[in-house]
Amino acid sequence: MPVVIPRRRIAAVVTGLAVALVPPSLALTSAAGAPAAGALPVPHAAAAPALVAAPLTVSQAVASQTGQSATVRGYVVGQPTATSTVVRSSFPNDYALAIADSAAETSTSRMLYVQIPSAFRSAWGLKSNPSLMGRQIDVTGALSAYFSHPGMTSTTAFAFSGTSTTTTSPTSTTTSPTTSPTGTTSPYDSTYYASAIGKTGTALHTELHRIISSGVTTLTYDQVWTALKDTDQDPANSNNVIEIYSGRSIAKSDNGGGVDQWNREHVWAKSHGDFGTVNGPGTDVHHLRPEDVTVNSTRGNLDFDLGGSPVAQCTGCLSDGDSFEPRNAVKGDVARMILYMAVRWDGGDGFADLEPNNLVGNGTAPYIGRLSVLKQWNLQDPPDAFEKRRNQVIFDTWQHNRNPFVDHPEWVTAIYGS
Questions:
Q1: pTM over the 0.70 mark
Q2: Which is the most buried residue in 150, 328, 332, 360, by most CB within 10 A?
């Protein structure tokens, strides 16, 4: 016989199921938020605590180079100085460190290269803090290549693992509408660069070319002598200039072609595009710098890259058969001059289209490398007071145009990528 269930029991069962299946957040409420008339009271569940994601391991970070922001935990194992080179002592500067999942790791393939922005260098750079070696730290930033190696860039926080003491990057309170793609501002954003603000990639390249090619005064090669005595004046001795590669202070009057004199160095080697010294790229003072005659000869028309043998009379410089590496203090200067030339001289005006590439040994082709290294130099050596003053003097007195990468070094990444 069929089992007969009284209607009241059926109603009770259905009501019980409904109450059991409806979560507290969906319980019937009135417009004011109180339980609706006739609704069964439902106890509120306690709020679940927020979950904090655990830091990634270094191996996870190495495999996740997608540009997203993350916190990574690892042991400090040295300072990267090239794609496959990490030094563990005699640290050259405070620009970068390498972390790994083991404090004893020696394989660079299992390391993450961490960029140290200027705000963190005094506290987290290895030259200033060699005792960091072997310490476990947490770092936060974008998982993207550094030194053409799995890395972290745009780093925003450092902390020792297991502590609550975190060093974070200062937050800007600037609310100016003339803000560049990454937030850096320049006094010329609302005037000189107004039409470029907010652009990236090819659009930014095109607009910067238009800006820095407009209203320019073209110098003669003879005028360059006089301009360099002004643009590269030694801030500690107004009678001298500073040689770019050697860093030597030398009398302005001691210029010429003799041994130990200084002459005009084309940072973008004039044979790379065969523009010589005719008025135009050959006399563009944004890339012309004083340099010792002998060192200038050693550099010749070599591309820029890492490594080689020490260069006589140029402490910190290296060279080999196809490349030249300047001292650390001017690596960024070199990168920004090269990329200025590529934006300024793009095939118009009757000259070759100058372009950076990722090669060395470019010879007389209108190319110069190595782009990946130049981009790295731009990051590790930001513009200093000397470089900024030089840009201003060229603008005010000589050519009346600016190097946009000195005002906005982040535009290197905006145009050429990280």
A1: no
A2: 332
